[in-house]
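User: My advisor asked me to double-check a structure prediction for Putative, 10TM heavy-metal exporter before group meeting. I don't want to rely on an old file, so could you generate it fresh from this sequence?
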Amino acid sequence: MDALKLSRSLPPWLCVSQFKLAHKRLLLPVALLALLAAPITRDVTVNTLSDAFWAVSSYVAFTLALYHYIALFFTKRNAAVELYLNSRHYQVVFAALLGALPGCGGAIIVTTQFVSGKVGFGAIVAVLTATMGDAAFLLLASKPSVGLGVIALGVIVGCISGWVVNIIHSDDFMRPSHSSLPERCTGEDSSPVESRAINLQGRFWKWLIIPATIIAFLGSFQIDINQLLSLPEMSIEWIGCICIITSMLLWSLTKEIKNYQSTVSEDDKPVASHPLQRAAQDTNFVTAWVIIAFMLFELTRHFGHLDMGNMFNGLGVWMPLMGVVVGLLPGCGPQILVTSFYLTGAAPMSAQLANAISNDGDALFPAIAMAPKAALVATIYTSIPALIVGYSYYALFEM
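Assistant: Sure, here is a fresh prediction for Putative, 10TM heavy-metal exporter from the sequence you gave:
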């Protein structure tokens, strides 16, 4: 009884039964700091995090900033939008093009329009087939020519898939008869800590995006930045390491992890937020998953003396199937892992192509919420061309 009275007299945040680690994202920067503190992992951690910041995060931030600024000019209703809404044939084309846009915004738009009766089921299949989600930013930033090629292939396959579905099914196939569209989160319910962290990460990239991109660009041409700037050895590596841990610390405080969706999908952003703020939030989300993939790859090689590239390539014929299976998972996080493994050489191109076509990114979450049956069938449909493309590439170039 005394213990019960004591627990009731304590403030809620001290009650063990009510305690929870809301900001579980903090585990990532804490783990990185622990790896830096340990002498046995310090060198590999510094080099890996430095590469992740200068070679990935900087380019992703620059690409995202351009994307969000350009997107401001394409928000008005025009003749193309009318054609998209009124033509069953062109709906598929425009849906595939919207899906090709890096990120998940285009796919989410088509998903909500299907539920509201503005577009048909073929458009849903086309947009989900064409979209790569946030993994597209990573691929475009790291290998622009490959990224553009994969996106173009996604549009072509998306159009063909959508037209085939239009032949088989009517526009109203799997459309829910009664549905209420959930409103997108505007970030107005964020806690003071989260709001402050969101603002700080926007300022972080506002001041760093130009110098970081310049350094990343010079590094791409194999220029020794330390020598160029007369800095001590490993200075630029430590600067990149400190910058990426700082960005991850800010990112860890911007959102609570409550379920699977809040773990693997990008953060909701206020509608009126500045393009640089949006770029900062998306960059840090992509970076977090890239760090997980890169550190997993390097630590496995460091401690196990294993070459993950040879290990995965040894799976051979199973790799495209693995890409498709991961693509069936909702959210962009798992898909960024696959792209990161491709960039490090751990996954072949066939797995990357299969995953790019099968994955639906964050668009699958509103689809499941508003039209679960349509989401399930559309996901199964997107896996069919993914298997065809993945195994076709494997048979032609990797056998």
